Amino acid sequence: MSKRKIFLFSFTALMLFSLALPADVSAQDETTPKTPPAVEPYEGLPLCAPGVYLVTPVDCLPLGPSATLTQWARRGMTLPQRPLPASHPDISYTELDQKYAKINVPPGVQAAYYPTIDAAVAGWGALSTLPIGQTLYITYENVSYYDGNPYLANKRGEWIRASPTTYSNFQGLLFKLQLLNNFGWIIDVVSPNREPSIYGQKVNVNLTRGDLVQVYDKVEAEGTTWYMIKPGQWVDRNKIRVVTPSLSAPEGVDNGRWIEINLYEQTLTVYEDNRLIFATLVATGFEPYYTRPGLFQIREKKDLETMTGAFATGKVDYYLLENVPWTMYYDGPRAIHGAYWRAMFGYEQSHGCVNLSVGDSHWLYDWAAEGDWVYVWDPSGKTPTDPEFYKESGAF
């Protein structure tokens, strides 16, 4: 085909195509939908630099890491972790001018006092005997050994077979500043879980009894309460006792000054001017010798008090506790006092009294006055509250 014919064919095709198009694209049928021009879906702010934003900024978005850090900060957690604004009372509070011993005669045998150590060794010529019991603690002045066995003399020079004991030097915490979050004590050996679940992976951290931890969150899961003590570290309620500072005084407390005993957590807290100033672990009554919930007042204080009695039929649970230190009666026979015979606190163990370590009971005794309020409660609701239940119960 010649060049002239090719040109004519191409020109003709172009003209036909042009005629098939509308003369003016803008003059299309008005019913035809128009495609809107593309726009940015959000002309918003940039992300904030990673940090804590307790007040929402106006020039950036506190998302991503900032959202997590801010959430933690609202719970009182910072990175690095800020220590609690707390300290122990002076160590001198743990000192006592008393020596204690546990009666250790064979089961079913009555312990006895003798005029001399030779008589005590021979078991002849007893001056007096003690009832058979499960909890027998005495005070003594001197100790001697015969065939490796200890024999003790009391202030009257009477000798008895018994073993000298030591007492716990555990101390609670004093607070000078308002707390931003809860805290607690580990009460058993535990490695935290990465998640609030018994199936969660264990963290390579070993916590032991008495370790102080801060608490930033809690979750109810798998029939227990889980507490977050650090990011990615959760401990279940069976291994920890937690203090949640009260934000207001219990109903009936009219002077902003009270002692609060949490039966569920086994903690005691002290408030002055409506502010937490002291907290520690305690041991309260176990079933059926509960510590009674309610609002009470301290009616009597005694530096030293010998406690004795029995609860069970036949008095098979007879107890003798000489020179119990720093005793404060607040509810009939129930008292707050030092318990030199207890090695651990944070568990229900007593016959109704509120047991503290020697050091904690001394500090509290010095702080409290007769007439001060004592508020006892059980947030779980499991402790009986009917006054009739407690009419015949005893305490120590």
Describe the structure.
- There is one protein chain.
- The chain has helices at 3-20, 65-74, 117-122, 358-367; strands at residues 86-87, 100-103, 112-113, 128-129, 135-139, 142-146, 149-153, 159-164, 173-175, 182-186, 212-215, 217-221, 224-230, 233-236, 240-243, 257-262, 267-272, 275-281, 294-297, 300-309, 319-331, 334-338, 354-356, 373-377.
- The chain has 396 residues and is mainly beta.
- Among the domains are: 94-164; 180-243, SH3 type barrels (Roll); 257-390, Beta Barrel (L,D-transpeptidase catalytic domain-like), CATH 2.40.440.
- Strands 2, 5, 6, 7, 8, 20, 21, 22 and 23 form a nine-stranded mixed β-sheet that branches.
- The longest helix is centred in the first third of the chain and has 18 residues, at 3-20.
- The radius of gyration is 37 Å and the shape is elongated.
